Amino acid sequence: MSTDKPVRISREGGVGVIELARPDKFNCLSLAVHAAIAEALDEFEAPGSGVRAVLVRAQGKHFCTGADLDEVKHLRSRPADIEHFIRYGHVVLQRLEASSLPVVAACQGLALAGGSELMMACDVVFASSDFRFGDQHAQYGLVPGWGGSQRLPRIVGVRRALDLFYSARWIDASTAFAWGLVNYVVEPDKLAEVSMAYCAQLASRSRIGLATMKHLARQGLDQPLNEGLELEQVRISRELLNDDVSEGLAAFEARRPPVFKS
Fold this sequence. Notes:
Blueprint: E1 7-12, E2 15-20, H1 31-45, E3 53-58, H2 69-75, H3 79-98, E4 103-107, E5 110-112, H4 114-120, E6 124-128, E7 132-134, H5 148-156, H6 158-167, E8 170-172, H7 173-178, E9 184-186, H8 191-203, H9 207-221, H10 225-239, H11 243-254
Parallel strand pairs: 2-3, 3-4, 4-6, 5-7, 6-9
Antiparallel strand pairs: 1-2, 7-8
GO biological process, one term: fatty acid beta-oxidation
InterPro entries: ClpP/crotonase-like_dom_sf, Enoyl-CoA_hydra/iso
GO molecular function: isomerase activity
């Protein structure tokens, strides 16, 4: 496993860890950071990897405060390069969102602009009680570039999203929880422990089962209900025949924990 900065990739049992490791730059996102996240997903999703859940976390005081503006300034003189910078960020965040593995984020301090977009591409979010969420693009004549304009309205509703975009204000952890941006709020000194314990629990589940549920929820979201229901019927009819279901039913009958092989 790689331990090189700007991202540290590691494993703890069945949990693959992607750790932003630029605390001196508030874990801002660069091409190298996105490339490291993509490399981690390649490794964790590979057959036989043993990884069944992914935890995205960050070193230092803040989760992520956005794009690396030094890199943006350098790339703006070359339109093709800035287009690649934006497109590649989209590709990587869409990979997180579409990964067959559950992706959990553990966020402390600030998640701003590109950092908020990274957070929103994850499936489940733990936030520390000192967490703050915001989009400051409008304050500097910018616009969201890595999916924020599309994901935020889908999560919190159009009116709340536009207010956050227009005002560039931050919201605290309790508001983020009330609006559905984060799933859990915990004390800062418990964030690492609680988020890892959650991921370890996911790692005890059927990889096939979790992947199927994620696929159905993600794919069905933007389809008419009848098409989503049809998608579910087709998939469940197939998945009920797999070995993990056989193990789950046997474990239920024997009143023991299941041991999944997928």
